[in-house]
Design brief:
With about 200 residues, the protein is an alpha/beta fold. It has one domain: Rossmann fold (3-Layer(aba) Sandwich). The chain has seven helices and five strands, in the order E-H-E-H-H-E-H-E-H-H-E-H. Strands 2-3-1-4-5 form a five-stranded parallel sheet, sandwiched between helices. The chain starts with 16 loop residues before the first strand and ends in a 15-residue tail after the last helix.
């Protein structure tokens, strides 16, 4: 699949198509729902789409099909969503940008915003949750930091905007995101990924 460079994805405020990426527990789903409502556009959560399509929970998919099976289904569903043209806000799972084909799909279909958080924030939010297979038995800030560092290059390659969420309420994050989006010229080409505050 030819991969669209970052310069090829226009921002159309009349028909916004936004994908939220980032590490687990950075608030992609909750922020996505709130931001979509404020923009008046549909919201989809890729993890929920996967659960519906598979008829089982994400830990069950990992247990029965392994991470490779989960990632294959994730890519198939992302492809369907990325090929549309209607307004959409998509919250993705933390591992979505790791596959090169997923990065291409995100670039071709969306303005991509990365939500970031410190490892301690993620650890506090995840707590003792049993629905995070990749953190099973290693929910500590050092392990989270290592996994974040492994994923950083993929996130940096695909994002257009980046916003840190530490210490912010959902409404404050959405206000910051709307401000960053409003600053983009209509139908502009985004020359390079931006870092955020």
């Amino acid at each position: 699949m030819p991969c669209h460079p970052l310069t090829d994805i226009p921002w159309n405020p009349a028909r916004p198509r936004i994908a939220l990426i980032g590490f687990m527990a950075t608030g992609k789903s909750s922020v996505g729902q709130s931001l979509a409502a404020s923009l008046g556009i549909p919201f989809r959560d890729l993890d929920r789409e996967i659960v519906t399509a598979a008829g089982m929970s994400i830990p069950e998919i990992f247990s029965r099909q392994g991470e490779a099976g989960f990632r294959a289904l994730e890519t198939r569903l992302l492809q369907k969503l990325a090929c549309g043209s209607d307004p959409l806000l998509l919250a993705t799972g933390g591992g979505v940008p790791l596959r090169p084909e997923n990065r291409c799909l995100l670039r071709q279909g969306f303005v991509v915003i990365e939500l970031t958080a410190e490892p301690e924030t993620v650890q506090r939010r995840v707590g003792e949750a049993q629905d995070r297979p990749l953190l099973t038995g290693r929910n500590n800030s050092a392990a989270i930091r290592r996994l974040m560092e492994e994923r950083r290059p993929a996130y940096e390659e695909v994002r257009h905007l980046q916003v840190a969420v530490d210490g912010l309420r959902i409404d404050e994050i959405c206000l910051r995101l709307r401000s960053r989006l409003a600053a983009l010229p209509p139908a502009s080409s985004l020359v390079k990924p931006e870092s955020g505050d």
